[in-house]
Write a structure and sequence with these properties.
The complex is a heterodimer.
Chain A: H1 2-32, H2 39-57, H3 63-90, H4 99-120, E1 125-126, E2 135-138, E3 141-144, H5 145-167, H6 169-179, H7 181-186, H8 191-217, E4 219-220, H9 224-239, H10 244-268, H11 278-292
Antiparallel strand pairs in A: 1-4, 2-3
Helix pairs in contact in A: 1-5, 1-8, 1-9, 1-10, 2-3, 2-4, 2-8, 2-9, 3-8, 5-6, 5-8, 6-8, 9-10, 9-11, 10-11
Chain B: E1 4-13, E2 16-26, E3 31-35, H1 42-50, E4 57-62, E5 65-66, H2 72-77, E6 80-83, H3 95-102, H4 109-122, H5 124-128, H6 139-151, E7 157-161, H7 169-184, E8 188-192, H8 196-201, E9 205-210, E10 213-219, H9 220-225, H10 227-233
Parallel strand pairs in B: 3-8, 3-9, 6-7, 7-8
Antiparallel strand pairs in B: 1-2, 1-4, 4-5, 9-10
Classes of the chains: A mainly alpha, B alpha/beta.
Chain lengths: 306, 236
């Protein structure tokens, strides 16, 4: 029981980070029909900025202040980055064939990785050991204070975002623009402004996720955005891309699947495959789900999607 | 000059010139209808006024401001709202959300709420279905919703593209009733309509368009009695 619960906790923590990144993919896809492959690398930049600022500030400030300032710095940098990526790389291609912005997105991803390598080097950076190492025992499973913080903050952000999109003027404008930018324009909505805001929000979420993942694993690396982005994108597809709640469900599910996969794959295959196959396991489940439901768990059939 | 003034408007789709030098004026509080066969360029003209299509040559002024090279959201803020062909519903958004979007540019939420409640009172079917997706309404209900949504932006000029297309007679009447109501509130109207008889009956002036040009303009009541107009457009 306790191992099961432990895997579930670990999976939900990991999954809530995936979900935050997946929301960025799904919001942009919902509005532009574009898969922003650079989003994983924006998350990486967020992790790098947070880690570097917290390292620089620790020793001068108490740890909560250092972490808060590091988070603010990461959010600010990622928002500026996301804004300019859209303005410079995607907006000029708004009416180009769909393949063009997709290739550009991959290009932006490579640029960000190389930029990060130039700034921070090729080595793994260690997250400063300043967070308190406390934990709680629940029925034999151990949840650390970092895990608890990640879960709590991620869920709070998701609830706020869900409310924003469903019940506010901005959210209505976002959903209207997602259905038809032209029609939204006739309502007086400036679609370009809404698209910029979408990138700003997605990038801020990526920054938070970047800090979380680097604090959780205790390190950051210029290439970390690739696999993280791929998994978050898969999570968005799993839940039904374009659907906010789908991204949340898909992220949490992918985290849990991965965690259980890593925990039990050795037992299931009598030791043939080890926990290093956890990534394969997650993508295997993704393929199975998409064979049964091509539009994802919460996705609507392609015909009546906005 | 107040109102909407089009001056030698030309609009092209590639090499095809859909509108070939149109002059048109819609005065303050005036109702003008644009009739003519399919492909005459009526929809193209409305879309250009609303900013959805670029104008190749000519001038568009509204209350003295040029509307050329302005985005649709900007033109709406100048007081021109378009009820597009096919109703332009946000299908998955509720009736209430569609109406709220109509009032997107408004900054007086209390008055907006009152106006939306008045819409529900006047059109109970919309009120009953306010939380349902707009895509589930009947065609006529969607058309009424589209018109009321456009009026919520408090436009001074309302452009309508074939608002009665495919509607049952009762719904067609309701559409014209809501246009008459808007007109009494001081809204100018530029109406593109297939049903020439109804359009002429509910307008002050009419322009007849054919292959990208305006052939005849005149007072609507005079055109109704014009034998050539009767023969060509009223099927008499």
């Amino acid at each position: 029981m306790s191992i099961l619960l432990q895997q579930l906790v670990n999976g939900l923590v990991l999954g809530s980070v995936y979900a935050l990144v997946a929301l960025g993919y799904t919001m942009v896809y919902g509005i532009l029909g574009l898969i922003n492959f650079a989003h994983g690398d924006v998350t990486m930049i967020g992790a790098m900025v947070a880690l570097t600022s917290i390292t620089a500030l620790s020793g001068h400030l108490p740890w909560p202040a250092a972490v808060a300032l590091g988070l603010i710095a990461a959010i600010a940098v990622c928002m500026v980055l996301g804004y300019f990526i859209e303005r410079l790389a995607y907006r000029p291609l708004r009416h180009a064939p769909r393949l063009a912005p997709l290739i550009t997105a991959i290009g932006v991803s490579i640029i960000l990785q190389n930029l990060a390598m130039l700034i921070w080097g090729r080595q793994y950076l260690a997250f400063p050991a300043l967070l308190p190492q406390t934990w709680f025992d629940i029925d034999g499973a151990r949840i650390t204070s970092i895990q608890l913080a990640i879960l709590g903050i991620a869920l709070t952000i998701m609830l706020i975002l869900d409310f924003l999109v469903r019940h506010t003027r901005l959210g209505r404008a976002m959903r209207a623009t997602a259905q038809s930018p032209q029609l939204a324009g006739l309502m007086g909505i400036n679609a370009n402004q809404i698209i910029s805001i979408t990138f700003l929000i997605g990038s801020a979420l990526a920054a938070v996720a970047g800090l979380m993942v680097s604090a959780y694993y205790g390190l950051a690396h210029y290439y970390m955005g690739f696999l993280l982005g791929l998994k978050a994108f898969s999570a968005a597809v799993l839940g039904g891309i374009g659907q906010l709640r789908g991204a949340i469900l898909g992220g949490l599910l992918l985290g849990v699947i991965e965690s259980f996969g890593a925990g039990y794959i050795g037992v299931l295959t009598h030791g043939l495959l080890g926990s290093n196959y956890q990534d394969v396991f997650a993508f295997f489940v993704l393929i199975i789900v998409l064979m049964v439901r091509p539009s994802g768990l919460l996705g609507k059939p392609a015909a009546d999607r906005a | 000059m107040t109102g909407l003034a089009l001056h030698h408007i030309r609009i092209r789709y590639g090499h095809l010139e859909a509108v070939q030098g149109v002059d048109l004026h819609v005065g303050d509080g005036e109702r003008v209808c644009l009739i003519g066969a399919n492909g005459a360029g009526k929809t193209t003209l409305l879309k250009a006024i609303a900013g959805l299509l670029p104008v190749h040559a000519g001038q568009i002024h509204f209350d003295g401001h040029s509307l050329l090279r302005r985005a649709p959201h900007d033109i709406l803020r100048h007081g021109i709202a378009l009820v597009p062909e096919g109703r332009g519903m946000f299908n998955q958004l509720s009736v209430a959300e569609n109406l709220s979007l109509g009032a997107y540019t408004r900054t007086d939420p209390l008055a907006v709420r009152q106006e939306i409640n008045r819409i529900y009172d006047s059109w109970p079917r919309l009120g009953e279905r306010r939380h349902q997706p707009a895509g589930q309404l009947s065609g006529g209900e969607q058309q009424l919703l589209s018109i009321q949504r456009a009026l919520l932006s408090r436009p001074r000029l309302l452009l309508l593209d074939e608002p009665t297309m495919g509607l049952a007679p009762l719904m067609t009447e309701a559409v014209f009733a809501s246009l008459d109501m808007a007109h009494r509130d001081g809204v100018s109207i530029l109406l593109v309509e297939q049903n020439a008889r109804l359009a002429l009956a509910h307008s002050d002036r009419a322009a007849i368009m054919e292959t990208g040009r305006i052939l005849i303009t005149g007072a609507s009541h005079a055109l109704i009695d014009d034998p050539t107009v009767q023969a060509a457009y009223l099927g008499l």
